Amino acid sequence: MGGVNLKISKELLKGSTTLLVLSMLEQQPMYGYQLIKRLEQRSSSVFTLKEGTLYPILHTLESEGQVEAIWSEADGRQRKTYHLTDKGRKLLQEKKAEWDLFRGSLDRVIGEV
């Protein structure tokens, strides 16, 4: 793949967004824009989420008790910082196990293992 400019299909990314968001929040609590930028940075710009994609995920995770949002003030602005809860850590472990199974099965089918 060297030198080829590949883009990840939106459908492929769609199935991984919750795992990506939970993984980022496991590292540290973050506010939305910070999460978008860190994810982009960590993935060398392969994973870029729009606010319209991220915030519905965060709101769903919050309503299901997997993340907690805490308001704070930074630079004179109110920010909602998202924290992973114990329930969120459990979901993250389940999503990682699901991903490992998927990746291993896909690799066997396409002949990578």
UniProtKB/TrEMBL annotation:
Give the Transcription regulator PadR N-terminal domain ranges.
Answer: 21-94
A Pfam family in this protein?
Answer: PadR
SUPFAM superfamilies named among the record's database cross-references: Winged helix' DNA-binding domain (SSF46785)
Q: What is this protein called?
A: PadR family transcriptional regulator
Organism of this sequence: Paenibacillus selenitireducens
Give the lineage: Bacteria, Bacillati, Bacillota, Bacilli, Bacillales
